[in-house]
What we know:
This protein is an alpha+beta fold. The protein has 3 helices and 15 strands.
Amino acid sequence: xxxxxxxxxxxxxxxxxxxxxxxxxxxxxxxxxxxxxxxxxxxxxxxxxxxxxxxxxxxxxxxxxxxxxxxxxxxxxxxxxxxxxxxxxxxxxxxxxxxxxxxxxxxxxxxxxxxxxxxxxxxxxxxxxxxxxxxxxxxxxxxxxxxxxxxxxxxxxxxxxxxxxxxxxxxxxxxxxxxxxxxxxxxxxxxxxxxxxxxxxxxxxxxxxxxxxxxxx
Length: 217
């Protein structure tokens, strides 16, 4: 074997062939030429840059190119796009379609018909031409007086008014006023009726539905 001793002396061991001629590194990182017998002081040649070695994956390069699945992926992408477009179109169509409004069925109603007869002859005013009205404390009982129908809690259900009064047929000098109150909700157990401000009368559904015969005086 051989080794450097200092910078310039090549130490050769016994029974060992001299080193071949060539450039050898020195301990200070430089190159020096050995001609097979002695060191020569000649400039060292420039060192060529080493090209980095790129590792190659033999297994990866040996595999065939993965091109067989591309049509499938493209086909799946196309199907997905069609599904997305169909969903968007369906969503737009659903959004543009008018939302049906809930239908509300109105409760059945009926008309409350009847009459109010003013029986106190002194309270009847003969208007002539077969018409009469109230007087002497019954001045509010006349054509156009308000007729209200309430439920049992006092809520107004419908409103109408008295028709012009006509002489009563009982021969006692009274005056009768007919009325018709439309649109009263049907089916309640009890109703209340008031003419003008004369107080409320409580009546059943059957009585209200078959006509009311009211008297005052």
